[in-house]
Amino acid sequence: MSLHGKTAFVTGAGSGIGQATAMAFAQAGAWVLLVDRDESALAGALAALRQGGGQGATMVCDVRQGDAVRAAVACAVQQRGALDCAVNAAGVEGASKTLLDEDEALFEQVMDINLRGVWHCLRAQIGQMLSQRAGGAIVNIASAAGLVGSRRCAAYSASKHGVLGLTRSAALQYGGQRVRINAVCPAGVSTDMARRIVSSAGQDMAGGGRNYPLGRYSTPQEIASGALWLCSEGAASTTGAVLSMDCGFTAA
Ligand SMILES: NC(=O)c1ccc[n+]([C@@H]2O[C@H](COP(=O)([O-])OP(=O)(O)OC[C@H]3O[C@@H](n4cnc5c(N)ncnc54)[C@H](O)[C@@H]3O)[C@@H](O)[C@H]2O)c1
User: Per UniProt, what is one Pfam family of this protein (predicted)?
Assistant: First the structure.
């Protein structure tokens, strides 16, 4: 799954799945622009990536802002001349509340980051790839909560269902220009986000995923390997796909 000589763009790269993806892409030979709104997390992620022999740079960017996302894509192109692949992992978990307890501020925050953010990223990334006339590959990190409902946060589930709609629609619209757009749907993954969710429920990570068929959460590296495959030549005939990587959570 070589990405040798490719330029990659990863959002949410300061932590968790995004960070593991940036690392996996760099180890596969890509130059990676690590994008996140958290500057100090980005600095740590870039240092770790370079320590592992990878190459890349960082760009502070809030994916809610279309101008900032376009500037981040322009930054990658300015440094490398082209954009070949992108993974959109920036997201927030919302809050563990039933629908009647969710307020508009929570709904707007979750939709703004998880759905509008991916919409901004797709538009900037696809626009750049079309201008290069050489195709490209994009992976959106959705969620098992984009396939089934959530007992924890309806707004989060709705935002991730929306990400799948964006993924499939973009795949239909730009497949003819060889831009492939796919999604990965994890259930629990051992990241800071999962730790926050589990601790807000008064539980600990050790029992996370106990009820899944495989009896555990995924690791961020496992999700990164799915994103890497989807951006590789091995997935050249795959677009509009929704890849469940959820330790069997949605198999039932
Ligand atoms: N961890 C899980 O159990 C799990 C399960 C399914 C899906 N996901 C999805 O995977 C993605 C990554 O989650 P994670 O577990 O790595 O979370 P995380 O909290 O560890 O990392 C998320 C990163 O996104 C960044 N971010 C948040 N809002 C941003 C914004 N507006 N602009 C730019 N960056 C922003 C954060 O600063 C952070 O570095 C999310 O989209 C999440 O919904 C996670």
Answer: adh_short_C2
Given this model, what pLDDT does residue 206 score? 87
156 in catalytic set = yes
Q: Is the pLDDT of residue 1 over 90?
A: no
Q: What is the pLDDT of residue 118?
A: 99
Q: What is the mean pLDDT of residues 185-203?
A: 95
Q: How confident is the model at residue 108 (pLDDT cuts 50, 70, 90)?
A: very high
Cβ pair 18, 10 in contact under 8 A: yes
Residue 113 phi/psi, 5° resolution? -85, -55
Nearest to 26 by CA among 56, 69, 63: 56
Binding pocket residue ranges, ligand 1, CB within 6 Å: 11-12, 14-18, 36-38, 41, 61-64, 89-92, 113, 117, 141, 143, 186, 188-189, 191-194
What average pLDDT does this structure show over 222-245? 98
